[in-house]
C-alpha cells in the first residue's frame, strides 16, 4: 500500500513539474509573439509577430480609396495607391502586444472568436497626394480664373448672360476635404455637399456688364401676351430683342440717359409678321377630312380679320409705356373661333368628291348623309372654300335663270350657294352631281336636312372641298 502511495506521489510530482515547465516554456514563447487567443479584425494571430500580423491585416484591408461624387452625380475613385497613401497597423499592434502579459496567457484559454477591431495608421506622401487631387476630372478640367467668361450673348430666345464664374471647383478645398475624409475613415465624399465649388469674384467691367444685362432683360421680357380664343401667345424675348439697335461694333446703343435705343419700325413690322397667321379670312387651310386625308382649301368667306393698324398702335403704346398685360386684338371681322384653328370642333363638312355631308358638334359626328352638289358638266360646280352659314329660312322659293324651286329649309353659305333639301330628288350621292347636279347648292335629303337646320347656328363654319 505504501508503495502505491509513494508511486502516485512520484507521478504527481513529475506531472506538476512537467506542467510548470510547459507553462513556463509557453510564457517564454509568447514574450516575442501574440499570446494565446489573440484575434484582430477577424484574423487569428496567436503565435505571430507584430510584423507578421501587420502584413496579414494590410493584405485584408478593404479600404482602397474614396468615392468622389461630383456635382452632376458622376462618381470617380480617389485611389490610395495613386495618392501616395499607405497604411500600417504596426503601432497599434505593438501597443496591443505590449499590453499582453505572457505569464497570464492561461486567462485567455477559454476566449473564442475575434475580439479586437483596430484601424491602421495612414501615411500620406504630400506630393503624390496633391498630384492625385489635380488629376481628378473636375479639378483637371478647371481653367485659370480669367478664362471663365462673363458676357452678354445673343440666342434664339433673346439675349442671355453667360456667366461661367459660378460653381467653379476650388482645388485647395478639394485637397482639404479629401485629406479629412482619408484621416476620418470615410468611404465617399460629395464635392457639392462639402463646399468644394465657389463663385469667382466679378471685376468692375463684369459688374457693368451685369447692370447692362439687367436693362436688356427687362426690355426683352416685356410681359405682353396676345389672347386668341383659348390660346395665349406671349410677345417673346427672342422677337423683342431684335428691336434693339446695335452700333457698328455690335454693342448696344444707349441714349443720353443711359437707356437702350430701339427701332419702332421693327416693332410695327413684327406686329404684321406675328399676327399674320391669325388673319385667317380668305387664307389657305389644311383640313383633316372625315375620309382620312389632309386637304388644302384656299379662300372663302369664313375667318378672322384683325385690325392691323389698331394693333400696331396698341403694341407701340403698350411697349413704350411698359404695360404688362394679356391683350385681345381688335377684329374687323370675327369667326366663331379665334386662333390658328378657327374652324373649331363644330362645323359642317361638304366632301364634294365623295358626295357626303357631315355635321360635327363639339367634336362628335352628329349627322352624315349623301348629297348632290353642283353640276360638273354644265360648269356649275360647288366651289372649294371655307365659308359659314350666314342665314336660315324655312319654306323658301329659290329662283334663278329658268327655275323656281320650293325648299323647306334654306341655309345660305356663299353668295347664292346654300344647303337645302331637294323635294324633287329621290336619290343622292354617287355620281349624280356630274351630269345631273344642282346649280351649285348642296342638295340634301329631307330628314337629315331638317335635323341639320335645327342644330346649326348662324356663323357655323362650312368646309367645302374636293
Task: Note down, in words, how this protein is organized.
This protein is elongated. The longest helix is centred in the N-terminal third of the chain and has 28 residues, at 2-29. It is 29% helix and 26% strand. It has helices at 2-29, 50-60, 90-99, 126-134, 137-140, 171-183, 204-220, 237-240, 264-275, 308-320, 432-436, 446-455; strands at 39-40, 43-44, 65-69, 75-79, 85-88, 121-124, 150-155, 158-163, 168-169, 188-190, 197-198, 224-228, 231-234, 284-288, 294-298, 305-306, 325-327, 331-333, 347-351, 356-361, 364-370, 385-388, 393-400, 403-414, 417-421, 442-444, 461-465. The chain has a 5-stranded mixed sheet with strand order 21-20-19-27-22, with helices on one face. The chain has a 4-stranded mixed sheet with strand order 23-24-25-26, with helices on one face. A 3-stranded mixed sheet has the order 4-3-10, with helices on one face. Strand 24 and strand 25 (417-421) form a beta hairpin. It is built from 12 helices and 27 strands. The model has no long low-confidence stretch (mean pLDDT 91). The relative contact order is 0.07. The chain is of the alpha+beta class and 466 residues long. The chain starts with a helix and ends with a strand.
